[in-house]
Amino acid sequence: MSSPHNSRRTFAIISHPDAGKTTLTEKLLLQGGAIHLAGEVKARGQARRARSDWMKIEQQRGISVTSSVMTFERDGITFNLLDTPGHEDFSEDTYRTLTAVDSAIMVIDAAKGIEPQTRKLFEVCRLRSVPIITFVNKVDREGRPVFELLDEIAEMLALDVSPQTFPVGMGGQFEGILDFATGNVARPEGPSKEFLGTIDEKPVLPEQWAEEAELAQIGYPAFDLEAYRNGDLTPVYFGSALKNFGVVDLIDAIARYAPPPRPQPAGEEQISPDRDEVTGFIFKVQANMDPNHRDRIAFMRQVSGTFKRGMKLIPSGLGKPIAIHSPILFFAQDREIADTAEAGDIIGIPNHGTLRVGDTLSEKNDIRFTGLPNFAPEILRRVQLVDPTKTKQLRKALDDLSEEGVIQVFYPEIGAQWIVGVVGQLQLEVLISRLSAEYKVEAMLEASPFATARWIKGSDAALKTFEEFNRPNLAKDRDGDLVFMARSPWDVNYQQEKNPDLVFSATKER
Fold this sequence. Notes:
eight-stranded antiparallel sheet; Alpha-Beta Plaits; Rossmann fold; 3 domains; alpha+beta; nucleotide-binding; about 25% helix
């Protein structure tokens, strides 16, 4: 722990919807002292929403649709927890969040095993070599056989699995969680069968469970720190977030095994957290977290240096320094002004449109962090105002929401109606909900003649020729970059073959 950043653990929780991720997040915050009441998950109505779900549509539907940041401290370690959207329609925001973490907890439902969204998010982690700790949740309910779950994780994700704890029965036969390291068993208590702190030290287990536990220990690889940090092995913990089983084990595992801040890519260079200069990148922008103040917060993952309140940093998108007077640290839905921050910390920077997703912030403006892409939208819709006099408010709202990464906005070369693009259907619901709730703009979405979009690059001459023949199918994005609006995937392939000097890209890296 020689450098302050070595005490940081910046991690995300990833899962399929309904695997219990929001409950686990709440219990981690409770154990870390960031919140003092765990009744939300048992209460009804508004009280049931966890602290990380604050947006109106999240409260109505009980799902997380935006990535939240929560910081808590325990035993000298600062934990920065990034709660990611589990819904399949939010891969873009989730992907960007996973660029800002050093490790992840993968939550799996014991009754369902690996589900499509879990696998999709795991692949994103693998692309960035993000090490993963697996938490098999809901073992207090009926679930699949333990060995079947372990083998599925190993086979479907091509990972070595190393169980660190083991359920003594499941569902109606659940008798607790065995810790392989100590031989102790955490026991359920009371009518609700919760873990209230009772530990049996090295009990004699019933023969069936003793045999299964022994098989799990000898049949799978021992934990290897290097293999885990390389993304080749996942330690597996069993538990029930709702009943408090396995939560402390997870916190201890993150503290003990998860890597401190890792170097981040900046082109060919890797920027080390030990670098003296303060550097960071914006991976998320969120407007109206506090509707009373119409605020706009840019989330910066600090990569290196010791940040001090009032410092001047240069955003790559602006080119001139800005003073950061009111940097924010997040404690669930509460906030504190940050006087200092270290590599690995996530700080919120209030601003009015100065900072955008993908911007690098640094003292000298001589590096650019890479790896935060925009994705080609899979759904395109025209926006129709109910009240045509609110055009100005709509433009402001679309600008805000596109800067957050909720939507992309395209301005056609011919025609007046703006087109919004998203990667999933639920984002359209979020758009309409937030236009109404936050901007008091009522709008409808109409079918667009276009199915997808591609960013176009090439020589000036090749681009000019292409524009002359395809102007009705061209638009500019909010950065002013040229976009080909395609009516079908066939259309994209046809234009690529017809224009070999141009590149039609499905992603745009900022």
